[in-house]
Every structure is written in structure tokens, then in C-alpha cells.
């Protein structure tokens, strides 16, 4: 998603900057610097996230999560402050967002 922000959790704090402590809540982790620095630790951080664990637990939980995502709308903001609601699937394929391997991989900008 170019120049957009998406949250997969209904938490009050969405952004986290990992600094040696595993984070279990929130949706967006910001890893500063080169991806080579974080490549080994990203899976560890991600595997502790509550929503990521639900994806890995069972087929039933993953399918329930997928159904929820199919009906979820996201708020898209423009640089000028305007916003609109669209289905999540129009922003990012549901098959990607519900795939633990895709989520834990490096996303190109």
C-alpha cells in the first residue's frame, strides 16, 4: 500500500517502535533503518502479536478472521485531509492480509 496506513487491530495505540522488548498489542510495527538490520527479528516480534497468533492457530480461526476482513471497511485519508470508506479488499487483497507468511515477509515500498 503506497503512502497509506492500515490497522488490523481495534486498539488505541497502533504504532510501535520495537526496541528490544517484544510487543504483543497494536497493529503497525515500524522498523527503522535497513531491512537487513531487522530481517532476523521481525518474525519474533510479529509472532507475539495477538491477531497474528489467531491467524496461525487453526484453519477455523483463520477463516473467521478472513470473513471478518471481507466485511471490514477502512478509512482512507488523502494528503489534503479528505477521507472515504472502502472495503479492505479494494486496498489490499484479503488473501494477503490473512496469510501469515505474506504478513511476516518484507513489504517493498
Keywords:
flat; two-stranded antiparallel sheet; alpha+beta; 109 residues; 4 strands
Structure report:
The protein has 109 residues and is an alpha+beta fold. It has one domain. It is 40% helix and 13% strand. The chain has helices at residues 35-38, 42-47, 50-57, 59-71, 88-91, 94-97, 100-104, and strands at residues 15-16, 28-29, 73-77, 83-87. The protein has a two-stranded parallel ribbon with strand order 1-2. A two-stranded antiparallel ribbon has the order 3-4. Helix 3 (50-57) crosses helix 4 (59-71).
What is the helix content?
Answer: 40-55%
List the domain count as a whole number.
1
Helical stretch tally: 7
Mean pLDDT: 70
Strand order within the widest beta sheet: 1-2
Which radius of gyration do the C-alpha atoms yield?
14 Å
What sort of overall outline do the alpha carbons produce when their principal axes are compared? flat
Biggest β-sheet: count, sense, barrel?
Answer: 2 strands, parallel
Class by alpha and beta content: alpha+beta
Taking the alpha carbons of the first and last residues, their distance comes to 8 Å
Name the helix and strand elements from N-terminus to C-terminus, one letter apiece: EEHHHHEEHHH
- Overall strand count: 4
Protein name: ESAG3
Organism: Trypanosoma brucei gambiense (strain MHOM/CI/86/DAL972)
Amino acid at each position: 500500500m503506497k503512502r497509506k496506513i492500515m490497522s488490523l487491530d481495534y486498539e488505541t495505540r497502533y504504532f510501535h517502535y520495537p526496541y528490544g522488548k517484544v510487543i504483543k498489542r497494536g497493529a503497525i510495527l515500524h522498523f527503522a533503518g535497513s531491512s537487513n538490520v531487522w530481517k532476523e527479528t521481525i518474525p519474533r516480534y510479529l509472532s507475539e502479536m495477538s491477531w497474528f497468533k489467531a491467524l496461525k492457530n487453526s484453519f477455523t480461526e483463520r477463516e473467521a478472521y478472513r470473513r471478518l476482513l471481507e466485511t471490514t471497511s477502512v478509512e482512507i485519508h488523502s494528503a489534503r485531509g479528505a477521507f472515504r470508506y472502502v472495503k479492505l479488499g479494494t486496498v489490499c487483497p484479503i488473501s494477503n492480509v490473512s496469510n501469515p507468511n505474506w504478513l511476516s515477509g518484507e513489504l517493498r515500498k
